[in-house]
Amino acid sequence: MSRRNKIYEGKAKVLFEGPEPGTIIQYFKDDATAFNAEKKGTLAGKGVVNNHISEYIFTALADIGVPTHFIERTSMREQLVKAVEIIPVEVIVRNIAAGGISKRLGIDEGTPLPRPIVEFCYKSDELGDPLIAEEHVLAFGWADEIELEEMTHYALRINDFLSGLFAGIGIKLVDFKLEFGRLYEGEDCITILADEISPDGCRLWDMKTGEKLDKDRFRRDLGGEMEAYQEVARRLGILPNAD
Ligand code: C5P
After folding, report:
1. What are phi and psi of 78, to 5 degrees?
2. Tell me: the pLDDT tens digits for 153-167?
3. Å from CA of 32 to ligand 1 middle
4. N or C: which end of the chain has fewer CB within 10 A?
5. Model pLDDT for residues 54-65, shown as the tens digit of each residue
6. Contact, 64 vs 161, CB < 8 A?
7. What is the Cα–Cα distance from 63 to 58, expressed in whole angstroms?
């Protein structure tokens, strides 16, 4: 992977220049971080599993009409995606209280929320991705009103779809994080789903046992991270052999 031009290296992925202008290769690493990289580790094979899970989900989302950056998976750890300008706002959708919202508002983990709640965080490693209001997004120009409306609309649509998809394989979709980007096509600029959707950025609980099948296993030192990620892939019918 060192022969290509690296554009960016994040906590779990590396982006390289793609073969055509306007394309990028997204490489999935085995590195795991939590609490804004205060906790670091390596989960052997995570990159392979997340690449396949994200491919599966982005393909299914495209099928229901959600525009995404995904073009094709090109290897066990890589996928070809459209180059976008990332909107510096993380969109979180919550169905059941856990993690951040439980801490902030004193709601017991596992409490179903009255309706899906969409939250926004400012994408900044330096600041630890702080929770922000729509007002901040607009006032600081991180996204405009149309983009904000589209991100919210797509986030709820994705939540509906993924909640059903996971329910079908015995998993509760507790919450998840999305990132969107701007795709410039001539004069036009459209908002499309970017980044990845995998157990790194979702909370997924087994419906029968309540077992956590996501990155909380790493964050909370529960162990069995890879078995959990592989179980999600297995239930989706896409268990790849780790390389
Ligand atoms: O920590 P918190 O409860 O706010 O996280 C909500 C959801 O968003 C979780 O599924 C978590 O994995 C995801 N998330 C993420 N990246 C962040 C913040 C949250 O993937 N920077």
Report:
1. -130, 150
2. 999 999 999 999 999
3. 13
4. C
5. 999 999 999 999
6. yes
7. 9
pLDDT band for position 2 (50/70/90)?
A: low
By the 10 Å C-beta count (0-12 exposed, 13-18 middle, 19+ buried), 21 is classed as: exposed
The rounded Å distance from CA 189 to ligand 1 centre is: 27
Report the separation in Å between the CA atom of 243 and the middle of ligand 1, taken as the mean of its atom positions. 27
Considering the entire predicted model, what is its pTM? 0.97
Report pLDDT digits (tens) over 164-178: 999 999 999 999 999
Query: What dihedral angle (degrees, nearest 10) is formed by the CA atoms of 110, 154, 70, 82?
Result: -130
Q: Is 143 strand, coil or helix? A: coil
CA 234 vs. chain centroid, Å, equals 19
Separation of CA 80 and ligand 1 centre (Å): 25
Q: Is the CB of 217 under 6 A from ligand 1?
A: no
Identify the residue whose C-alpha is closest to ligand 1 atom 1: 100
Distance 33 CA to ligand 1 centre (A): 12
Percent of the chain exceeding pLDDT 90 equals 95
The helix/strand/coil state of 141 is coil
Distance CA 195, CA 110 (A): 27
Indicate whether residue 215 lines ligand 1 (CB < 6 A). yes
Q: Is the CB of 99 under 6 A from ligand 1?
A: yes
pLDDT for position 1: 52
Domains and CATH numbers, the chain: 6-82 (3.30.200.20), 85-224 (3.30.470.20)
